[in-house]
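Journal club side-thread
Mid-discussion, someone asked how the predicted structure for our own chain would compare to the paper's figures. Pasting it here so we can look after the session.
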Amino acid sequence: MRVWGGMAVGLRINLVVAAKENQMSIGLARDFLLWCAIVNYAVLLWWFLGFVLAHDWMHRLHGRWFRVSPEHFDAIHYAGMALYKIGILLFNLVPFVALRIAMNHGS
């Protein structure tokens, strides 16, 4: 193995070989997207429960930094939850469904 500039040239070859051996299968990608969706929906549920059950505390906490009326505070959280849910749909569930369809048509 030759050393050039303090780096081993053979290291690059080993990384390429390792990358080819560890390629992600469609099934693994599908399972990954499903777990991402589950975790993201758990975060969304946690956010919603915290918002509903600790609304006044959250408003007081954020009110220390930002002067926001309770109505505006509610609108901000509602919009944030809506955007987060849309992100889950677009980036986790739609690719998951597309991979499921591709796997069913491929077999």
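Post-session note: Residues 25-106 form one domain.
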